[in-house]
Design a protein that fits this description.
single chain, 96 residues, mainly alpha
Length: 96
């Protein structure tokens, strides 16, 4: 596991647990919206491949954002670059 502030003090099992929670959240959102008329869900599971937190170029904030701002509500949310990637991917998928 590479050293980074987001992994500081967390074991591999704890990091895997956090990743599992993100997967559960994605699945819950997709399930809840599946039956809503006129709603489509973009599959973005692999949009951040190679850019997760603890990578050299993360596109999402990890827990270390709280070290900079304890009031932050951004852990596990996309950075500005991550938001740009998501927007471009959604537009490409739904404008085809």
């Amino acid at each position: 596991m590479p050293a980074c502030p987001d992994a500081a003090g967390l074991s591999s099992a704890q990091l895997a647990f956090l990743r599992g929670l993100l997967d559960q959240l994605d699945a819950t959102i997709q399930h809840a919206l599946r039956t809503e008329p006129g709603v489509r869900v973009a599959e973005l599971r692999h949009a951040f491949d190679g850019h997760q937190w603890c990578s050299p170029d993360p596109w999402a904030y990890g827990p270390s954002v709280l070290l900079q701002n304890r009031a932050s509500r951004a852990p596990f949310h996309p950075t500005v670059r991550g938001q740009q990637v998501i927007a471009a991917d959604v537009l490409r998928k739904f404008n085809d």
